[in-house]
Fold Solute carrier family 2 member 11.
Amino acid sequence: MPPCLHGQSASLTLVLMVASAAIGGTLQYGYNLAIMNAPTTFIQTFINETFLERWDVQLEDYQVTLVWTVIVSIFSLGGLMGALIAGPMTIRFGRKNCLLLNNVFLMTAALFAVSSRASRSFEMIIISRFLVGISAGVSMNVQPMYFGESAPKHLRGAISLSSAVFTAFGVVLGQVVGLREILGSEQCWQYLLASNAIPGLIQLVTLPWFPESPRYLLIDRGDKEACIKALRRLQGCSVQSCELDDILQEQAETKGLKPQTPWQLFTERAVRWQLVSIVITSSAMQLCGNDSIYFYASYVFKESGIPADKIQYVTIGTGACEFTARVLNNVKESFLIRACSFKQGYISWMPYLSMTCIFTYILSFGMGPAGVTGILPTEIFNQTARPAAYMIAGSMMWLNLFITGMIFPFLVSGLSAFCFVPFAVVCLLSALYVGLFLPETKGKSLSAISREFHKLNYKGQDGKRGSQTQAEYQLGEAPLSTTV
């Protein structure tokens, strides 16, 4: 067995592992949200030209908008499919290998995108976006699971927030690469859509050097030696014993149990409030309207009164705000955006105040649900339920992103200054739920979190959980921990 790494070396390994996984994970999600905004006009022209060449039909503006909306929103349907296959893939291949295999979808998508213009086929763009969505759907489920199972308990919060940081960085990167001076020009938009292959290649080269999730190695594969080796590489000697005890505790609680299906979770009372929590938080993450701003930034800022020649530079501010996000409140910003938009026709500087409010709204999202929602299923479900929980959470996230992506441009056109009011209501209701019902998970073991949910699931009853070990098992009792 190789010697333990010193804390500093182990921390560096953990940081590099996080970066490698996120480059092909949440960074790709943010990047692929952002790159669709810059070539909007060029792709719409391409769609119109294609219809004219094939069928001698000149599309009306609303028809072009509809086809464009399908191109944008098909990304979400692909994400939904990716979320559904992510659970079985992680069980069969493991967390790390699943992320690596996921790049097959990405590379195929890039090939379709770069060939679409020469082939005179907007359908290839649709296929490309669908495949990119599958890739993002898989990685958005698997990456938080990989992080949550690999990070030491005291760093779990920081590691979870890194997912949001990489998403925001992906947005900024996509917006910068999408500038007309780089790949956002009429001549280069097909290369912009295919540029997501580069982060995928970086992940393929770097991620194989890092270990698999220690929890997966011990609980799913029963490989104690590989688990200890992974812990030594990622966490060093100082925290290994307590972390191994925590993994052993979860192994004892799930001993003899098979991975659960989403349907089993829906019918099991012992996880009722956990399930409600991930459904509400995952849905609210998209129904708050934040990610739709990236899809349709041109529409939003045009409606806000920003000059057309400045919009591409202003959109970079949306990603920069999320990247530099600080603690703000989501709810109050939505109402402020509505108020500023309402006055923009009467006060010359109001469009820029409206722009500032949009930035602030995105900023608050970055340090709120964006960082926490993805890691939540890891913290409130055990190993057998975790893949199914991520399938449910991911499905809700992508389904609601599809809904908001489809209606957002029509919402902006129809409600104008009031378009953010529905999102404000979602923010308010979800904030009330989180404040009243979701237990704090910071620094707690899975068993401690489960006991708090047990009180909610069996409120006023003496109901028993499926495994009494969960209540009786004490850290450090497992004989395997003495082998560290």
Q: What stands out?
A: The CA atoms of residues 306 and 351 lie 6 Å apart. Residues 61-93 form the longest helix (33 residues).
